[in-house]
Batch of 2 targets.
Target 1
Amino acid sequence: MSQQFPALIIIVPLLAAFFIFTVSWINRKLCFPIAVLSLAISLVSAMGLLGMVLSNGPVEYRMGGWPPPWGIPYYVDYLNALVLVVVYAVALINLLACRQSVRREFPDKIGSFFTLYVLFVTGLGGMVVTGDAFNLYVLLEIASLTGYALIGMGKGDAALSSLNYIFMGTIGASFYLLGIGYLYLVTGSLNIADIASILPGVYDSKVVLVAFIFCITGLFLKMAFFPLHGWLPNAYTNAPSAAISLIAPLTTKVMIYVMIRIVLYLFTPSFSFGALHVGSVLVWLSAGAIVMGSLLALGQKSLKRMLAYIIVAEVGYMTGGLWLGNTEGITGAILHLVNDAAMTLCVFLAAGTLMFKIKPSVAGELQLDDLAGSFTKMPYTMAAFVMGALSIIGVPPFCGFFSKWYLLSGAVTAGHYEFLAALLFSSLVNVVLFFRIIEIGYYGKPGHRAESGHSIAHMDEAPLDMLIPLLLVAAGLLAMGFYTDDIVTHVIRFAIPAGIV
Amino acid sequence: MIWYIELVITILVIICGIAAITVRDLLGAAILFGAYSFMMCLLWAIMGAVDVAFTEASVGAGVSTVLFVAAVFRTSRRTKD
Amino acid sequence: MHDLILAIMSKYNYWIYIVLLMIGLYAMMVKKNLVKKIIGMNILQTAIILFYISVSAKKDGTLPIIIHGPHAGHHPVRAADYINPLPHVLMLTAIVVAVATLGVALALAIKVYQQYGTLDEDEIHTRIRK
Amino acid sequence: MKIIGFIIVLLCGGLLAYATSDFPYWGDPASPASMHVSAYYIENAVADTSVPNIVTAVLADYRGYDTMFETAVIFSAAIACFFLLRIFTPESSQSKLYRHIPTGITLRIAPGGKLPEKSDTFERIDSSWVPHDLIIKTACRLFIPFIQIFGLYVIAHGHHSPGGGFQGGVILGASIILFAVSNDLRSTISRMGEKITAFLCSAGVFIYAGTGALCILLGANFLDYGALASLMGVDPVSARSHGILIVEIGVGITVMAVMVSLYYILSSGGQLDEGL
């Protein structure tokens, strides 16, 4: 049974998605339990897979029984086993937390929402484990298509921002497909490990250089790297809160994982960092992304738009960490990928819970000063929000600090002091951003704005089934902080290939 | 491969592509896009990709054009650029 | 000069795909009407499909279908005289993905029209700000 | 904005043209693209799967996992359109048009008012109706059965001639769309309802993924049709060929249902009342 784990991870949610859509026409109550069951089974098999990888090395699963260059293999090593567990854990926790807000926002389309939800997670899970470059494109399309639909159903101009997301996302996916086509032209194979073995013979050809440029530009577009981030703020602000607390923590992180996989395992480090001299330029760009993301977040009035710009800055952390090219930088990038998924989930879940309870003054977007007096009204939600905020700022007991520490030490050893300065600057700006909210929430009088009409502040907390997952994630941030050393020594150290200095 | 037929179809593909973008009336653009897909299908059939040509003819020229016309019918034909 | 023409003529199919890709990209960036952008997106995707198909072409290779049955002699199959079938398989996927993206994009365009009454991006932005 | 767009496009085109200089000559058999993996497919496709059409063999067997997710892509497109546009509460803002059959007079009923749906003297017509055209309706009724037979032929004959699940499914879907365009949407929905389309959507992909899961239960890896040999009582090679046929039928059903549901939702703007 355990030998079939890699297949179970994708097949159980896929079959469940089709089953949910059929059942939604018969009895709408069954959709949620099936979705939870399918994601729970795949989370358990993902953890079992991580255990198998830790005990006896990378696992290879051949689809259809054909050997790799001819068939499509799954290649699960230390890097993607870890990311796989994070993807399914975030998806399951968010699914448990979003039941009430889904019933309130889409009363008659619950079945199709959960089908899109499970298909989105299947697309991401498949993208993380596949060992074939073209199969990665197909799974990328499933994840983005369901993401466009989930974002398109929000309030206000969600449809227009989702349409812009479609245009930018399709250009990104087509550039990635073009890059794979150019690689196929010179190597004749589509399997990542196979291409990596054939490529050293043709490193000097211009086709490989252009393939590299197009693959990376396509992925930059999909992960909203700073100059190409135009679609992210609008899309993430207007999306329904149940959908955005799934999409925000996962899409950009899995795209960064795909970039790490391609840079380190397809174009081997000797080509990416040695032959090309693009590494230092990209670190400068990442520093710019961090600074601009933080500054733009500073000037926002709406809570979700501010969090969206913080995500743009976090993308700069991870790309900068990867392109530093040394072991600390890449360890920091992988660790930050895992930590940031948890932090973003915690902060977006808290924002979703706040929007669930508080009626926003400006239609649709929860303004910062709507949070006045929210510490007294919703203490547990705000407590979880504060823990998420401290982790994003990088306060020691939380996991955000350790990944930032690796990034800082990587920047020092690589001699990129502008990246170091950008990291510190962004931490300071985060302090300003979050303490402004805490100050409004703690000291602001709920009644101090006459038209909001809140009486004396009494505690009306969010429903329990939204609170427990939120507090679970907040506790998870602390736990990941304590177990950072185990994660790094047992998992991430083996995830970095030999070529890194 | 009769190269002059291929040359004619290539020029037609590019003309249909540019026309589909520049023509002002959206229904005309949808029909021109159908013609563009059909010319593309011919180009692939000449190059020997028969399965892809069959799919492009039925999916690209057929259903995409119907979906475009349905969408233009549901929205508006007028456009400024 | 002669070898320049030879070089261009020997790879002339790749220039077509580059021209179409530029047309599609230009339309997506510059056109204001949403349906025009969707047409540009589709042209971009068909251009990349054209690139894959021109990779698979082989001089004097026949269709990738092996003649079988009683009358076909049992000579071993040589790879050189059949066209490369792998890009065809990949492009079947890409065409279906293009139609799926087209369906979702048109659904969103109709939803935008139902909300704002226009498909022109500038008019929509003025109505959002109002 | 026009100039910036133009510059970016020229930059992109220049980069691509710069790379073309290193391309292998167009169509030479020794180019790396046609040596490594595709040479194996050409030489071994008939021996492994006894399917003469190499493209169908590679599509459904060697890279069958790709095609399963491709069917999932088209399935998620149908769900996405349903999720985005479908409106269940009847929006009675427009006025409805009825035609009195004996006399041919058309009546415009103000919003809210409603004539008995099943009465035989009045029939509901679209607000943008075209004059009663007998030729198109009867011509289409004649065509549709033959189109559907051709669609089934294309699905079934995907092994030997170009064709297969996608093309056949689209042709079947197009025959139903032809009926919807020639008559009106309501009569099509009365013949092939929204529930049936939704069920067929997920049934087709369920067949595909279910066949793969069946191979796991029989001990082989996912989508390894050779394991079906014990079930079908034939040798593994022709079991693969039958496996490919089952999978193509699943794909055909899904693609047909998806094309029909996409047309239903897009042409009626989500209300499934008045279509093209």
Note: Residues 236-268 of chain D form the longest helix (33 residues).
Target 2
Amino acid sequence: MKYLELTVGAVLVYNFVLSRFLGICPFLGVSKRLGTAMGMSGAVIFVMTLASFITSLLYRHVLRFEYDGRTVDIGFLQVLLFILVIAGLVQLIEIMLQKLSPMLYQALGIYLPLITTNCAVLGAATINANNNYTVLEATVFGFFSGVGFALALLLFASLRERLDLAAVPAPFKGTAIALITAGILAMAFVGFSGLC
Amino acid sequence: MSDGEKTTEVMLPTGSDLVLSVSPHLSAADSVRRIMYKVLLALIPACVAGIWFFGWRALAVIVVTALFCIGAEALWCRIAGKPVLGTIADGSAALTGVLLALNLPPEIPFWICLVGAFLAIWLGKQVFGGLGNNPFNPALVARVGLLIALPAAMTTWTPPRGMGADSPAAAEFYSPSTLHKLQGKKVGLDSVTHATELDSVTCATPLGVVGTTPKILDKSFEAQQNFQAVDNNEMLWRYFLGIKGGCIGETSILALLIGGILLIAFKLINWRVPICYIGTVAVFTGLVNYFFPGVTPTPLFHILTGGLVLGAFFMATDMVTSPITPTGCIVFAIGCGIITSVIRIWGNYPEGVSFSILFMNALVPLIDRWCGQRPFGYTVKREVAK
Amino acid sequence: MNKNVKTFHGGIHPACDGKSLSNGVSVQRAPLLDKYRVVISENVGKPPKPVVEAGACVKKYQLIAAADGFVSANLHAPTSGRVTGIVEVPGAMGVPVQAIEIEADGADEAGELLPALDWRNCDVALLRKRVEEAGLVGMGGAAFPTHVKLSPPPEKKVDVLVLNGAECEPYLTADHRLMVEQPEAVLEGAAISARILGVTKIYIGVEINKADAIDALNAHAAEFGIEVVPLKVQYPQGSEKQLIFAITGRKVPAGGLPMDAGCVVQNVGTAAALADAVIRGIPLVERIVTVTGEVVAHPGNWLLKIGTPVIRVVEWAGGVTEEPGKLILGGPMMGFAQKSFDVTVTKNTSGILLLPRTVAVTYGSSPCIRCGRCVAGCPMNLVPCALGNAVEAERFDLAAQNHVMDCLECGSCAYVCPAHRPLVQHMRRAKAEIRKRKK
Amino acid sequence: MGTLTAAVMVMAGIGLALGVVIGFFAKLFQVKSDARVELVTELLPGANCGGCGKAGCSDFAKSVVSGENPPSKCPVSSKEQVTAIALALGIDAGESFAKKAVVCCGGDREQTLRLANYNGVLDCVSASLVAGGPKGCAYGCLGMGTCARKCPFGAIEIINGLAVIHKELCVGCGTCVAVCPRNVIKLVPAEAEVHVYCNSPAKGPAKKQVCRVPCLGCRKCVRAAEGKFTVNGFRAEVNYQAPELPTAEDVQKIGCPTGCLLTAEEHLRIEMNEPEWSAGKDE
């Protein structure tokens, strides 16, 4: 039951993009085409899961450990350490993508390195730490947060593809209408509040 | 005509007035404007029922909101340099206005109607390029926007005609103090002070009552009886007729059904959509009710209360914001049904129709993509080969 | 309604079919004119090469332009007279085309005819050659050379011949009158085509609003072993792919030809002309044309020589009651609007339609409201409104992805569109752009 | 162990570990890329007009680096820009012919007959698919502005139902030439001043029926200015390959009877100064 709550919470109720307003940069930047959005979603799910797993390991076993009978607490390093780890992970993915899927690499462009500083990934790691999730819980939470991000991104990308063909007035073309759409989408997600 | 010499002059065409256009050169008689007016016509029974149950105030809300919407549309067209009259004449702004009004409580202040009208027409429709381009149902954008921003005003319900203090289950719908006040009138207190006090009489909606009733998670007798007061045959009949608190348009299921049948008769909607939507809610809530009778009332209660019928017939079938293929429409309706049920049973909001349709609106492009139909002459294999 | 009536998926039911204007009027023979302009490039494929010089005297039925290559068709003189030269005339598609102008001598004197053939017993190659010599083309609309159609490549197994007597276009009654007045010619032509193709199964599909035609055909059909199939009144019942599906249940694969489904489809008019060519040795120089429309004084059906100017035909039909808003060659659903009355009758002109402005549709630019009627009406199961939107945004890649190339341009989508969007124009644009890009 | 030591050790340890892993992967998944392509792309104008025949500037840069195209193939780059690219790559710049587009038609709404009232999509390509468009002349400019909408440099204006090119904005990328369904736009040497504003190969009388400013093929220009004009069928053309191009004086001297032989400035001036067409005056 706990995991069901984690799942529903991460995907719908506290959706990273539409409820917590984290990860807006790739949400706006990589949502012009559905195909790219899918690739980005996959990358984010992967990074978030892995980052959640590793950072929760670090949080539980490195940031606070027993040494020589004393507890050493270096919790103040939390943010610093998390950023370092996430940056490293993204670097790895970028290197691998460039080789394995140059098309996706091209399409993601600048947004891939931007996951490095993506608040969503760091957010997931921090939320895990704040809620004191176990490593398994944190990994599940990270994965489904990624899925929630993917859901929002896919919905948004498909909407934007449709808006591409719409007669949007010139002043609202591009990011303006995208933000309005995102706002209405977020309104729709409010309906899920209270589910867990 | 006489045979022999034809003296009558034959009039030959000069070809000076020829129109050049692409085939086909004929068209069906229907137009966008006619469609909008037909939907408006189908909404009349619901409007009449709303006015009957909530009085002239409801009429005022409907008229004022429709006028505000038309005004908002005119203003936008004026600013954007679009033809004002032509855009208003298609009736879509008026339709949005009436739909929005039917989704508002009867005692709503008029300034909220104004805000709603601008939300619907400007934010819901015109920024996307006007009629046909909006991915979300404008009336629902406004309703959900208002519900989030002004929750108190949007959930203040007034009792309809025929729901006095002596009506069945009155204790469930009125707070004790309100009930007192209402009963006080029967005894005959000072009428002047009483009238002003009566203005602020509020009641709960059946779904609201259910939402505040503590859930019982077992199958005990208490669980079976948990919703007995609001979910029994007599009450269901009253809900069907429209004697329940709620938005102007969602009271009388009878009137909505008449409108729905009109829509189907005009061939404006696919009858499968409302059936699937309502059916999904019935099945979902039915299953939950069967296993956990203390968690949610019976399916019939869910169908007859709240905005389900209004939403199923008039909102989920909105052409612009629902999928284009028949299969897609069914998927859309089932999705709406599931989300509505989930929100009603477990969510913070007692009612989930608006949210569910708005959410499914966002899914429409994906549904369109995945529920497309296979063109004539294609087999699965060929498509892969292509 | 008859349960056995066959049909296809999708399509529309036009409210006003206009057939009653002319379906009871017998075919009339046109008077002789002093001048005919025979359009050279009227068939699909290569235009034939003129074989007569300016000033030459020709007899009726004499060859005036010879087929240039296999996919091309002979052209014969519609009357006797003197060739004045090659002139440019407005074509039915709007672009100027070359035509051979013949000044009639008034004698209408026939030249030497081809020998009559005993089609039941003579060599099939001889029959096929005759079809080629007589300059037969599909008279339903596309003007595809008939001999090409009757020579399917050996790897395609053709076992069914479908005769198209659906005439699903509103207003047109030429095929209807032909079937009523000359059922034997139609049936015999079908039987000859079947012999050329070597098939035994012959169907002739007729919409049930032409009960008299069905009766007339049924009176003789058994002699030729032909089955008359009544079809539901539904547009576009006469489209090849839809007709084959309705009658045989086979589906022509996308991008394929009827022969890919083992079928050959022939118009009833072509079949009758084919019978004439084989049995009497008469090449194709005249055809039945419906002259109709609300503004025509006396709508009717006329046997017209190829090369007759449209304005003369209108004159014979009693002129007009008011200035027409549209002149259409062909039917109202797929016919071509014309810019002037100087166009001439060609081998594939099935109708001359004059519509008042009030009846003809005016296309607007209002946006799609996604009502889905075009989706329900598309006989090819496409999503026309989405294609239209893609074209409006000039996203031809999207249009191609959504199978715009399979569009028939039947106009069902535009007919039902409540926003009156010029969808067929969008489809044509998309197809043109995609073809251009493929090059 | 003090907190400080622990912190330093943890950070250093994890940083080191990550560095090693990333270094290993970078070696494992190494991708070769050509820096020169990016360099050339930067030096190109970035208009992505496609005038070079490639899909955008970066595609063209690739072809320049691979030696498929000389840098001068880019019609938009100035001579200096082309030289810069050639210098950067150490290759030959290639010979450059600056070109400009010209709409070879003078048949605006006033001059050329419209045979029918067109009802449909206001786009030249779409209109040409409906019986060739409403214009009486089957070869002239339809004036619905497809080229103007497609021009990446905003050099085309529709005046009175006729596309007119503003020479100073045109870079000769050829986008308009590719989209025009009537093939009425031609790329000519940038220095050419005089053009024949008629595109119809039809016979003189036929043209005269539908247009007030057709080229009648009278050969007056051919006779008056030796070698500068040719007549092709029934239409005169400027011989753009000739060593000497016709000048404004030549136009004066010839005195074209219909006025379809004009300098570009004169043509633009006529079209700009004509009274705006109004609905009542048509036909």
Note: The first strand of chain A starts at residue 64 and ends at 67.
